[in-house]
Amino acid sequence: MDPRVSELFGAAAAAQKSGGRKNAKNGSNKFKSRSARYPKASNNPPYLPPELKLVNPTQYRFEHLATQMKWRLQEGRGEAVYQIGVEDNGLLVGLTEEDMKASLKTLRRMAEKVGADITVLREREVDHDSDEPYRIAEVLVRKVPDDQQFLDLRVAVLGNVDSGKSTLLGVLTQGELDNGRGRARLNLFRHLHEIQTGRTSSISIEILGFDSRGEVVNYSESRTAEEICESASKMITFIDLAGHHKYLKTTIFGLTSYCPDFAMLVVSANTGIAGTTREHLGLAMALKVPIFIVVSKVDLCTKGTVERTVRQLERILKQPGCNKVPMLVSSTDDAVTAAQKFAQSPSITPIFTLSSVSGESLDLLKVFFNILPPLSNSKEQEELMQQLTEFQIDEIYTVPDVGTVVGGTLYSGICREGEQLVVGPTDAGQFRELAVCSIQRNRSGCRVLRAGQAATLALGDFDRSLLRKGMVMVSPEMNPTICWRFEAEIVLLFHAKTFHKGFQVTVHVGNVRQTATVEALQGKVSLLYLPELIDGRG
């Protein structure tokens, strides 16, 4: 987005340089290593000029514009943003009301031709030497869902215990406000002890959809997940993680194995930064997962308390260890701008203040999710799908009349029903052959699974006792090998003791969670955690 457009729309972070005049939903992709999966946003996105005027184009011009829109949608994996009334050099010219209506009508015709819908995100008047008002507009174009090929973004939900994570997800996905006593979170819990204590101890998955017009699709409108998938053009998959310190390993497993595109750190307004909040923030930053912050429970606090919590967050984000630029979202314009800049620049950190009981500012978070672009473009996604198949196993089930079922994420390639794969490694370091009987995404049937998508695969009568979390299902052509030793660079985030040779640790590599022993430290005898350096007090 051009900086002048950001400034006109009241962006709180307009001083940050944008990577281009039009957000084409570009970014980085999910590769094997976490650092490669979340690199910095490209500084040189393809040139995508805004549209000045689309009034009564000729048939040839219309066909050209429709082809251009189709290309933009492919690059943005089903989404594109048009700026009407802005010249190629970013000059805010504006259009009269009549020309604006005609331009939007043409844009709507173009969208219908390529199978998409349009939504006007925002309009503003510009200064002009005329008595007649001139306006510019920003329009979201989104493909109509086709055979479950919706845009899917995964958001990991972090935060201290009792910060309101599960309650917020319950309100977003169920469409009903909380009663102040945790009613909204009951549908998210998987175990009896979670309901009794009110604390999440496992990883649960929830979905929130948006249709081609940007309207919310959740369980209040649809009875089943299958209906949500059929109606949605864009899906936000929330990964609800545990906040209590004794479940930290489970939280780390969720961050490493589920490959979230973004992380949402929930902070309670009345307690501020407490408990595991700093640890979760450090983990997300260490894994290079773009993070935004939600300050919850503002209905329990005075305005001064909320402002104090926000200032506390801003102070931590600006410290040398973080180097983030906090952006407080207080209006719809801020939410739109935050979503666009958040994907372009990893330093931008949007901050929302809301309540799951009163519903205050909840719509701003929904607008943010609706506009939030993917990190990878179509070209990077295509390259990933051309690689050999690799599916990483996170969960294992036994389903009556179906047999053994595994859940996880397809890291590369394409997986189809009936495909022959090998799974392992076993305790002996071997791989066994198996066949994929059926595939389900978000609890509904799916014939083809593409790289980056999460799903469950039915394996028929394959012996469950031969499977365990951390295994991979790969193409036989890959000829997989195993290793017992590896070298790694260590950054000590939080530790109470000295890190030295012979130290026993738990290693999290993707979906692998394994105990290991430190055999040697190159160049050092030991490592020591210095809290004053991590917390920025030194």
Automatic annotation (TrEMBL):
Keywords linked to the UniProt accession: GTP-binding, Nucleotide-binding
Molecular function in Gene Ontology: GTP binding; GTPase activity; translation elongation factor activity
InterPro entries, per database record: EF-Tu_GTPase, GTPBP1-like, P-loop_NTPase, T_Tr_GTP-bd_dom, Transl_B-barrel_sf, Transl_elong_EF1A/Init_IF2_C
Lineage: superkingdom: Eukaryota
Region ranges (Disordered): 1-50
Matches recorded under PROSITE patterns: G_TR_2 (PS51722)
Pfam families reported for this sequence: GTP_EFTU
UniProt entry tagged with the keyword Nucleotide-binding: yes
Xref: Gene3D superfamilies: P-loop containing nucleotide triphosphate hydrolases (3.40.50.300), Translation factors (2.40.30.10)
Domain Tr-type G: 150-378
Family: Belongs to the TRAFAC class translation factor GTPase superfamily. Classic translation factor GTPase family. EF-Tu/EF-1A subfamily.
PANTHER family (alphabetical): ELONGATION FACTOR TU-RELATED (PTHR43721), GTP-BINDING PROTEIN 2 (PTHR43721:SF3)
Name of the molecule in the record: Tr-type G domain-containing protein
Gene designation per UniProt: gtpbp2a
